[in-house]
Design a protein that fits this description.
heterodimer; A: 212 residues; mainly alpha; 2 domains; 10 helices; B: 181 residues; alpha+beta; Immunoglobulin-like; 4-stranded antiparallel β-sheet; 3-stranded antiparallel β-sheet; 4 helices; rod-shaped
Chain lengths: 212, 181
């Protein structure tokens, strides 16, 4: 009797546990901004990501970005699906302990062309959160730096440099590129300069609104 | 005196005649009494809880119980004073756009559900300068400026979002654990 009860009750409980958050997501009023054909597909993608323990908020934001920019439904679905895949690959590389923000930055780095091996090396090289190193890597590639040069430079700095040092490194590279330097050379020079200044640059920073 | 005692003893030695139906009557009376069958489980539990009990404890046992209590209190206090998990701290970021001919500018991005009505920018100083301050938690954000309800502009002072999927320009802001972008 007890065994029979467990056979019927446990699967029902499991289904409820899975279905309840899914139903909650279906009811997210933000999804109402998508058209009727796109909404269930995006909801299903988000549910799948949740089942895989991936962060769902970036997927929702990507869909909302498309809706606000007037993108077609199939373009929105493709963008959300692509981001979900990248988030999954980022977690494979960074490990299950990676934060949602790290996974988002890792997905951007992968999308820029970085390899999963580079992400895994960064995880081993740095104890602090990887949000900024991964984002700097993605931004450098977006600025035209070859992915291998960008990965090598970020890996060389990741173990010692603070987030602020890495941001300053990225700005230096972008500045030199804007002044006409070849991207790879600008990256190598800025990495060397940043590495030399890491130990010196330990002063506190004033608390004021930041700038992108 | 001995004679009186002898008579009493003789009276007591006489066999007593008991009514053969006595047993049956007694059992009927007993079964007619109210039984505790109607008491609920709660009532039984309440009665069990209120019934006084005696415990015996050796001095050694008492010391062991006191030591166990002290250890439990110590562990609780240690756990209570252990460092809490790191809190996610948000930090204010100022967004600036120079748009001399704009009438209305909004900031839209991953931090406000890409809702053009939620974060309007304000003209400051000269009318060309539009600014807004937004608190942000660590993460990597896509954002853009929405000008006059029709035009998308990327932030010229920030990296371009290369992973933009929709064609319209976007910028990227990264907020690290220390608030650096």
């Amino acid at each position: 009797m007890t065994r029979a009860l467990m056979r019927t009750t446990l699967p029902l409980l499991a289904a409820l546990l899975v279905a309840a958050p899914a139903a909650a997501q279906q009811g997210d009023p933000r999804l109402e901004r998508l058209d009727a054909a796109t909404r269930p597909v995006v909801a299903a993608l988000i549910d799948s990501a949740r089942t895989a323990s991936l962060p769902t908020e970036p997927l929702l934001q990507r869909a909302l970005e498309g809706a606000t920019k007037g993108a077609a439904g199939d373009v929105i679905v493709a963008a959300v699906r692509r981001l979900a895949v990248d988030l999954g690959r980022a977690r494979e590389a960074l490990g299950s302990t990676a934060s949602p923000a790290e996974l988002g930055a890792g997905a951007a780095a992968l999308r820029a062309g970085a390899s999963q091996a580079t992400l895994a090396e960064l995880r081993h090289a740095r104890r602090e959160p990887l949000i900024v190193p991964l984002a700097v890597l993605a931004d450098l590639v977006a600025s035209g730096v070859p992915v291998d040069s960008a990965a090598a430079a970020v890996l060389s700095l990741a173990g010692r440099a603070r987030d602020a040092d890495l941001v300053e490194f990225r700005r230096a590279v972008e500045r030199d590129i804007a002044l006409g330097a070849p991207p790879a050379a600008a990256t190598a020079a800025a990495a060397t300069a940043t590495a030399q200044s890491v130990d010196v640059n330990a002063g506190a920073r004033p608390q004021r609104p930041g700038r992108p | 005196m001995d004679d009186v005692i002898e008579r009493i003893a003789r009276h007591l030695r006489r066999p007593v005649q008991v009514d053969p139906a006595l047993d049956g009557r007694v059992m009927r009376e007993i079964s007619a009494l109210p039984t505790p069958g109607g008491v609920t489980m709660v009532g039984k539990a309440w009665r069990w809880l209120r019934r006084p009990r005696q415990f015996t404890l050796t001095p050694l046992g008492g010391l062991a119980a006191a030591a166990a209590l002290a250890v439990a209190v110590f562990l609780y206090r240690t756990d209570a004073t252990s460092p809490a998990p790191p809190q996610v701290v948000s930090r204010a970021f100022q967004f600036v756009l120079v748009a001399p001919r704009a009438v209305h500018v909004s900031l839209v991005g991953d931090f406000n559900d890409w809702d053009a009505t939620r974060t309007p920018m304000r003209q400051t100083g000269s009318n060309a300068l539009w600014t807004v301050v937004v608190p942000l938690e660590p993460g990597r954000y896509h954002y853009a400026f929405f000008v006059d309800g029709s035009r998308w502009l990327a932030d010229p002072s920030a990296p371009v979002a290369r992973d933009d999927d929709y064609g319209a320009p976007s910028s990227v802001l990264t907020v690290g654990g220390g608030g650096d972008s």
